[in-house]
Specification:
There is one protein chain. The chain has helices at residues 5-13, 22-34, 65-76, 106-109, 187-200, 279-292; strands spanning 54-57, 80-84, 111-118, 127-130, 136-138, 140-148, 152-158, 166-173, 176-181, 183-184, 207-209, 213-219, 228-236, 242-252, 258-265, 270-277. The protein is an alpha+beta fold. Strands 1-2-9-8-7-4-5 form a seven-stranded mixed β-sheet. Strands 11, 12, 13, 14, 15 and 16 form a six-stranded antiparallel β-sheet that branches. A three-stranded antiparallel β-sheet has the order 3-6-10. A hairpin with a 5-residue loop joins strand 4 and strand 5. Helix 2 crosses helix 5. The radius of gyration is 21 Å and the shape is globular.
Length: 293
């Protein structure tokens, strides 16, 4: 997640909508990413992005030219970049950039925002529907009117005026892709969005989780025999049972039981699931990493 203190500060004293809070948006997206069991880092707009496969920049309201150049290079080299409405508006002097929205990012995103409509009532923005999958989510707080300049529509608005126009877009750029969301929505929407983004990036989460479960995976160094131990830490933060699902068979180091498929974790329960990677699997992973780097 690209966390921009400049954007957070600018939006705090010039909010684009009474209910649009930068930190809340970051939290929604972080939960959606972490909910997959993948590790999530926070990076600054000035940081080198080359070691990542996916970068999500919520409401990148303030953007420098060097940040835009870094994002462009990241996508050209095969990365997946995601940003939301209210991106590419001002420079570091809090001056509006004299360019069409999203300024400095339009080429990478393959779109132009020709108009926008801030909703005055939470949840009064109609629906958005994914082109593939068809599931609907509320369009909340803001609606960008998007013109495609090479990008494709991944989701559309529903309603009398906006019906059928792009709400989410995806643009192939170089070896990578850039995704833009022209509205805001619910935590369930961000869960669905990030699953699609990770699929686009070829990332397979190690676990599917529900409720208040959190999961994180760690790997040991490669042994002299060519094996590698991988541990999946799963814990339920909630006061109600919750379900998670893993592929293959793993051993819970705390109970000694074998775990596979769908499993119920009791309130505040913890499991440490071990998986042994054999030499061929380890060599394949190292080959993928080497080719990616």
């Amino acid at each position: 997640i690209m966390y921009s203190y400049d954007s957070a500060f600018a939006l705090s004293f010039q909010p684009q909508h009474n209910d649009l809070k930068y930190v809340d948006l970051v939290k929604d997206i972080h939960r959606a990413m972490a909910h997959t069991g993948l590790n999530v880092d926070f990076v600054s707009p000035e940081q080198d992005l080359s070691e990542y496969k996916v970068i999500v920049a919520p409401a990148l309201f303030v953007i420098e030219e060097k940040t835009a150049a870094s994002i462009k290079k990241f996508v050209e080299n095969g990365g997946i970049f995601v940003c939301t409405a209210r991106s590419g508006v001002k420079d570091v002097y809090n001056t509006v950039i004299p360019d069409q929205l999203p300024a400095r990012l339009g080429g990478v995103l393959g779109i132009t925002v020709t108009e926008y409509d801030p909703e005055m009532t939470r949840g009064d923005g109609g629906k958005i529907k994914f082109v593939k999958g068809g599931k609907k989510f509320p369009a909340m707080l803001w609606r960008d009117v998007i013109e495609l300049d090479g990008a494709q529509s991944a989701a559309v608005y529903e309603g009398k005026y906006y019906g059928g126009t792009p709400a989410i877009t995806i643009n192939k750029f170089g070896k990578g892709s850039a995704v833009y969301t022209g509205t805001f929505s619910t935590p369930e929407f961000y869960n669905a969005l990030m699953k699609k983004v990770f699929s686009l990036a070829g990332i397979k989460p190690p676990v599917e989780i529900t409720g208040e479960i959190e999961a994180v995976e760690r790997s040991s160094a490669k042994s002299s025999q060519g094996t590698q131990r991988r541990l999946l830490f799963v814990y339920n933060k909630g006061a109600a049972p919750a379900r998670f699902s893993v592929k293959g068979v793993r051993t819970d180091l705390l109970s000694g039981k074998k775990v596979s498929g769908k499993t119920i974790l009791p309130p505040f329960g913890v499991m440490i699931l071990k998986k042994i990677l054999r030499k061929k699997q380890v060599d394949k992973i190292y080959s993928i990493l080497y080719n990616y780097i």
